[in-house]
Fold Major facilitator superfamily (MFS) profile domain-containing protein.
Amino acid sequence: MTDKEKTSDSSHIEKVNEAPIAPDEDWDEVEEKALVKRIDWHVLPMLCLVFGLSLLDRTNISAAYIAGMAEALELTIGARYNIALLLFFVPYALLELPSNVVIRRIGARIWMSFLIIAWGACILGMGFVHHWVPLAVLRVLLGAFEAGLFPGAVFIISSWYRTYETARRVSIFYMASLFASGFSGIIAYGLSLIRVGDGIYREGWRWIFIIEGAITVAAGFVGLFTLGQFPEKARWLNPREKHIASVRISRERGNQEYEHITFKQSLKYLLDLKLGFYVMQYFICASSVYSLAFFMPIILREGMGFSYALSQVLTSPPYLLTVFLSLVGAWISDKFRIRWPILCAQSLTAVVGLLITLYAKPPGVRYFGTFLAVFGTQANIPGTLAYGQNQTAMSQKKGVVSAAMIAVGAAGGVTGSTIFRSQDAPLYLPGMWSTIAMQLLYAVGTFCMSMYLRRRNRLADEGKVDVLEGVPGFRYAP
């Protein structure tokens, strides 16, 4: 590389170690643990809150559907409801990678706050529509603005934590938000009881959108002051803490500094064949999660015969149990440094749950099956994201990997919103068996890929492979 090229490239490099510490100034385990705990409290809470709101906002349409929106907007005609669902995922898929390319340039706090305020306004607007077409248009805009949140949050988390610290943090982030959204049915039922004046304000389903949208907009403004940043922009760290935070991560990257990448470099990273497998994993997870989120209230009411109120309330307990079991699984995964056994076990649990829900006779037993199905599918969302991040050495590539996985996951959302068709009620056999087949594929594929990665590690240890992922000393975490 010429001196001119080096000078040009250096303009893209962002120094994360702004206050170098002399080589003899090291830190001990107690100091590092205290710093990690401080990072936890600065980075995770607001991310958990806003992601919980995003899950609530993208799935509250199912609660509004059975609260009267279906009749008011004539969504039962043809495939109008399915169209409104799947249109969300088109911009959601297309804009995730561009968002993760620009987030570090603009700054996480400003960029993500803008997205939160914008999608909150979309949700608020859904409370005032009178026809299904404006609803569909707002779903498109909702997908465009929500696109950057999830991959951006995973990118931020992976920039702060080591390989075997990541699964717990991603799981805490996802499950804390899932805990909040687990009450979505109860919250939606309460909001649907609101009646104000005459006309449209007496339609309870509108208040689901109006109140939840207003809360999201308010959270976006709060985020301007409280959302987490990347390490190099963390003003709440003193120079020594910033040094420790950056060096402990850079050592796993072969002491490489973060480099702002171009779209051309992003496309180069996308050609990694392993990334194709990671996105397939996440596609399966997302399609299963979205199908259950969109249609579980409908299955509970139409398939199991529960009342409207009980169907809304019964959607919450499976998600609350999922939070606890998923955090336990993530802790085991990090503690014992295992990934694939946990992921495969959770996937097979989902298969068992779906079979019980499909073929058991008593409604109570079928409802128990939803607990297993929700746990098995939801728990693998953060687990799969951590799996993809752990097999990636360079920080700039981590951003591309998370964005690509979640972008293809949007295609899973399209699948999840269409495989459960109204004409298949009340058993929804095609949708249920499609989900079962995908979960089995996930388990088999994850096992095979993990064995391949273990073999690559062994070859590197034996000196038969020079460098993994272009970073000396890096090892996969299968």
